[in-house]
Structures are given as structure tokens and as C-alpha cells.
Write a structure and sequence with these properties.
There is one protein chain. The protein has about 425 residues and is α+β, with helices and mostly antiparallel strands. The protein folds into three domains: about 5-90, Double Stranded RNA Binding Domain (2-Layer Sandwich), CATH 3.30.160; about 100-180; about 210-400, Orthogonal Bundle (hpI Integrase, Chain A), CATH 1.10.443. It is built from 18 helices and ten strands. It has helices at about 10-15, 70-85, 90-95, 100-110, 115, 120-135, 145-160, 160-180, 210-220, 225-240, 240-245, 280-290, 310-320, 335-350, 355-360, 365-370, 370-375, 385-400, and strands spanning about 5, 20-25, 30-35, 40-50, 55-60, 255, 260, 275, 300, 305. The strands form three sheets. A five-stranded mixed β-sheet has the order 1-2-3-4-5. It has a three-stranded antiparallel β-sheet with strand order 6-7-8. It starts with a strand and ends in a 12-residue tail after the last helix.
Length: about 425
């Protein structure tokens, strides 16, 4: 790392590089100005910890909020602590949090330049200021305990907002972890704390009315993410997992044969899986391919595909409720991406699709390879039956979405 004679001009005008860089001060050894690739500037003191003999870093503040002269003064003070056998991080943390409240920490957290760039920053700030600051904002950071966070989430749960309670808990946990990382706290008082009540049930199946409301309202619910709109619809049409749908690439698709061929490395159980494609599925796939461009993943994000966790976060954020939207942006009770898969398979079962066929559609080896007979002797793939099942479901789904009273006809043996 470069060692330079730091000046105010150097600190304010030095341009960021492609990587994070520490510029060490000639005047006060150990003092470093860190400039990230995004231009964020902060002060650090590098030293050998008296506690364990390892190299360590103490954060002294950000520039220009903390001037060069002030940073040098803090670095000299920190050096004195080291010489006295005390880890300066403990002293600095105590000074920083002596009078800091949870409300003050929220302000500092939201002012972090890295947080300002988050697309979800406005939603995180709204949740913190609405639910956290009014309840425990006056609590001293050094006195924060799990019961304080429970007071926050319990109040939300009493309003019947399970999803919001979970999101607020995750927000608070992120703030506290950030406080530990930036040495406002020595340890995380929330370590091991469980989330509030789960937002969704594992047996959630959407009704026909809910399917229609969700499908028709997706454009308004997720106006900034056409990709997520299509992924949600394809999960419901194909009955496949959100990670498999989000990671779809042209090489897996044979539109002439009307098949989506998933390799084993892309499935949960590690076994290759062929999904017959209905006309409805092909409609969304072609639209996604046209928008993504030739050869690109159907749902691109950076150099790869949109991560399933990003889709899940988008869904959870849209589930947040308010007085104007008591049933969230989707207009229905909370659901998860996996509930769409369960809904599709349940819908096929109602159409008379046999359990063994449902197992093949879902790529559930516990069903399709259960017992010696199926595992060893029966190598039939049920390809034709899978296609009939998915076509029947797509037809039924189209009728539900279109508001038509589609006639349900059970499958019969040929």
C-alpha cells in the first residue's frame, strides 16, 4: 500500500482506483486514508493488537466529516493506548456508543454511502423509522437487548403483519451487525435470536380467485421488474422451482420439441429433468428471450442469471402492508415462490393427474423411484403423461386468469 505525505488537498482530490486503496500517512505511522472504488473515504489506524498480537484496524471516522488534523490526533491517541497495552478499538467503541441511542445508530447506518446505493434503501428506512425508532429509539446502544427487539416485532405481529415483522427483524439485525463491523459495538446482542413467526405456511395453496388477482395485478405490483413478473408466472405454469426458472438459459430450451431440459447441476436433487412446455409457457419464454438478447440468460443480472434470493426479496418487499394496502401490493394473503409450485401441482391433481405423474412433473425421486420396482425395473419416463398434465394445467390456468368458468375434466386412462 502507498505511503504518502497526506494533505487536505490530497485527501479531497485523489481519485478512486478500480480497487479499494489505503494511503498511509508519513507524519503519523499507522494512520491510513481508505478510498473505495466508489469514492467513499474513511480513516483507519493499523496496529498490532496487544490482546492477540495480530494486525488489526481501528476505524477513526469518515472524510471529510473527520478532518486530516482530527484523524492524526485520534491516531496518536490510539497509538498511546497500544503502548499502554490496551486495544484502541475497545476505547473507541466505548466513546462512540457511550451516549449513542438506537435512533442515532439508525441515522448513522442509513448515512453509510454503501447503504445509500441500495435500491431498497427507501423501504428499509421507512420500516426502521415507522416501527423501530418510535418504540426503542431512545434505548442506549450499549444497553440494547433481545427483549427490545421483541417489543418491536410483537407490536407488528399484534397488528397481524407477519411479513412486515419478519422484514423489520431482518432490518434491525442488519443494523446491529453493521454496528459490530464498524466497531460501534463489541459484540452482537442479537446473536442466536430467532425470527418472529414465519410469514407463510408450508401448506399454502392459492385459490382460483387468488391466482386471478395475483396474475392480473403483477404488472402493477412489480412495475420495475418485468423479469420477476415472468418468473412468477412461469413458476405457476411449469410447477418448477424458482431457482430453476430464474436460471433458465437458451441452451436448456428446445422450442421445436417444446421441451426445457434441465441438467443435473441445476436441479435440487442433482438429476436431469425434462419439462414439457405448454403454449402458455412458450409465450413467456419467447418474450423473455427477445428482451434478454441472443444467447443471454432469459433473466439476466450482471454476468449471470437473476439469483433466486433476489426474486424472493422482491416478493417479500411487495408483501409489505399499509393502511392503504392491507393485503400488500399483490392484493392477497402472503405467499412464497414455493407456494406457486405447490399450487400448480395441486391444480393438476384436481384435474385427475396421477400421483406418479405429478412426481415426474416435480422431479421428486422419492415418488418416481420409490421401492425396488420403480427404482430398478421401471425406466419409463412418463414424458407423454407429463405433457398432457402440463397442457391441461395451462389450459385451466388460462381459464382462471381470464375469468372464465373453465370446466374441470378429469384425466382418464386410454
Amino acid at each position: 500500500m502507498p505511503t504518502v505525505a497526506l494533505t487536505d488537498r490530497f485527501c479531497s482530490t485523489t481519485k478512486p482506483t478500480k480497487t479499494r486503496t489505503d494511503y498511509f500517512d508519513v507524519t503519523v505511522p499507522g494512520l491510513a486514508l481508505r478510498i473505495t472504488k466508489d469514492g467513499h473515504r474513511s480513516w483507519s489506524f493499523i496496529f498490532t493488537s496487544p490482546r492477540d498480537g495480530k494486525r488489526a484496524r481501528a476505524t477513526l471516522g469518515t472524510y471529510p466529516a473527520t478532518s486530516l488534523a482530527a484523524a492524526r490526533g485520534k491516531a496518536l491517541e490510539a497509538r498511546g493506548h497500544v503502548q499502554a497495552g490496551t486495544d484502541p478499538r475497545l476505547v473507541l467503541a466505548g466513546q462512540a456508543t457511550a451516549g449513542m441511542t438506537v435512533a442515532g445508530l439508525v441515522d448513522v447506518y442509513l448515512a453509510d454511502p454503501e447503504k445509500v446505493l441500495l435500491r431498497s434503501k427507501a423501504e428499509i428506512e421507512r420500516r426502521l423509522r415507522k416501527n423501530v425508532v418510535p418504540v426503542i429509539g431512545a434505548v442506549k446502544l450499549a444497553e440494547l437487548r433481545r427483549r427490545d427487539v421483541r417489543n418491536v416485532t410483537d407490536a407488528i405481529l399484534r397488528r397481524g403483519r407477519k411479513v412486515e415483522a419478519t422484514r423489520v427483524f431482518e432490518d434491525v439485525r442488519a443494523v446491529v451487525r453493521w454496528a459490530v463491523e464498524h466497531e460501534y459495538l463489541d459484540a452482537n446482542p442479537l446473536d442466536g435470536m430467532a425470527k418472529p413467526a414465519e410469514a407463510t405456511s408450508r401448506d399454502r395453496v392459492l385459490t382460483d380467485d387468488e391466482i386471478r388477482t395475483l396474475w392480473v395485478g403483477l404488472t402493477e405490483a412489480l412495475p420495475r421488474s418485468v423479469e420477476c413478473q415472468r418468473i412468477i408466472k412461469l413458476c405457476l405454469v411449469t410447477a418448477q422451482r424458482v431457482g430453476e426458472v430464474a436460471g433458465m438459459v437458451p441452451a436448456e430450451l428446445d422450442l421445436k420439441a417444446r421441451e426445457w431440459r434441465l441438467p443435473g447441476v441445476r436441479t435440487k436433487n442433482g438429476h436431469a429433468h425434462v419439462v414439457p412446455l405448454s403454449d402458455l409457457a412458450i409465450e413467456f419464454i419467447k418474450a423473455a428471450m427477445a428482451d434478454a438478447g441472443k444467447g443471454a440468460p432469459l433473466f439476466p443480472a450482471g454476468k449471470g442469471s437473476l439469483p433466486p434470493a433476489a426474486v424472493a426479496r422482491t416478493i417479500v418487499r411487495a408483501h409489505e402492508t399499509s393502511e392503504e394496502r392491507p393485503y400488500s401490493r399483490f392484493g392477497i394473503a402472503p405467499w412464497s415462490a414455493h407456494d406457486l409450485r405447490r399450487t400448480a401441482l395441486t391444480g393438476m391433481a384436481r384435474l385427475g393427474v396421477a400421483p406418479i405423474v405429478l412426481g415426474h412433473v416435480a422431479n421428486h425421486r422419492t415418488t418416481t423411484r420409490a421401492g425396488v420396482t420403480l427404482a430398478v425395473y421401471s425406466q419409463y419416463t412418463y414424458a407423454a403423461e407429463k405433457r398432457v398434465a402440463l397442457d391441461l394445467w395451462a389450459e385451466r390456468l388460462s381459464a382462471i386468469v381470464g375469468g372464465a368458468g373453465a370446466k374441470v375434466v378429469a384425466m382418464r386412462r386410454r
